[in-house]
Specification:
Blueprint: H1 2-9, H2 11-34, H3 50-61, H4 67-84
Helix pairs in contact: 1-2, 2-3
Length: about 80
């Protein structure tokens, strides 16, 4: 999927999208843990960093598709993310 996103967005924008998702979600998670809004067990999860960046890229890919494929992509992404939490 990285290759498809890179072809669609270009290398620089793909990296920026990944970094924004990675850094932004990490900051939100840390703030949530500090304010006791998110359980501490999230901080000790094995994948707390890169997964945020990849999830951001996958979510952005929904805008690449049109019609039914977009809805199916978004629904599948939500289902997978919901099942893994």
């Amino acid at each position: 999927m990285r290759a498809a996103a890179e072809r669609w967005l270009g290398t620089g924008r793909w990296i920026l999208l990944f970094a924004t998702g990675h850094i932004g979600a990490t900051l939100i998670t840390v703030t949530g843990i500090d304010r006791c809004l998110i359980p501490l067990r999230v901080a000790t999860a094995p994948d707390v960093g890169a997964g945020y960046g990849f999830t951001t890229v996958l979510a952005a890919m929904a805008f690449r598709f049109r019609g039914v494929v977009r809805v199916l992509w978004a629904a599948a992404l939500v289902a997978v993310l919901g099942a893994t939490t």
